[in-house]
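MOLECULE: protein
FOLLOWS: sequence and fold
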Amino acid sequence: MKHKISRETKDTWEKGEEKNKYKKVFLIFIASFIVFMAGLLILHNKNDADNKIVENKDVITDIQDDVQAKAEEDLKKKAEEKAALEVSKIETEIEKILGDNKTFYGIYYYDFNSGLEYSVNGDKEFHAASTIKVPIAMMISDKLYNKEISEDMLIEYTLDNREDGAGVLQGSIVLGDKIKVSDLMKHMIEESDNIATSMLKKNLSSVPEYIMKVTGVNAGNDKNYITPRQSYTILKKLYEESESNVYYKKVLQMMKETSSHDRLDKYIPIEMISHKIGDYDQYVNDIGIVHTKEPYILVVYTKGVMEEGRENIARISKAIYDIKTSN
């Protein structure tokens, strides 16, 4: 038996289904809204967390930078204190060695690391003797670096190049002989050869003008006088520019291989120093760069003390070397 659904009942069901449909839509909307808001909350919290992490990282970085800066400042301060103490010790040792005879000496000491220096009669003129060959070698090096000349270029020996004094070319070279620039440089620096120096100077302008340009001090005339401060300035340029000018580096190596070892390197390892001696009349000199862990320049000029001067140059060099290598 079939039951007939009344129109009224059917309308009621349809209305109920429609209401259920709206409820579902509403519930879906509510659920979506809740999910959306939850997502926003999570994102917000994540951003806050990320910001806090970034802030914490920044704080940590700032602290690390402060600690590093403080450590560097402390190291610098300790290095300065150490260098100042070394200079004080050097002054004391030189006073002991020279006593009342300081007037006969010109001394310049310079520490590359600290920049501290010490001098005795630093602006007093002394005869440069063969120490002048260092700036001459630098002038030749500049020409080589600028490709104005080459190491293989030959220079002819002429009457104008005859010189007495030191060197292996004395008595072996004859008029018209030609020698390479590189060989003349080695003769001039390693053996202090005067003929080689004369031959090289053919290609140079005024040496005093070059010294004035480098040191800022007028070297006067061609009588070959120089001050300890000027020599220090020349050596400083030679050392500091040796990384950019390969020919300066070669000069420093030649100065390590000099044949004279009775002054700056008498009591210290000869392989540790690039130096050039000079003797003329009453003047006994030696100038050099000592390649210790903390490299330094030592320039010593003397007048009128001869053998005592040679020995005192050696003693001063040993005293400073011991101070510099004691720590």
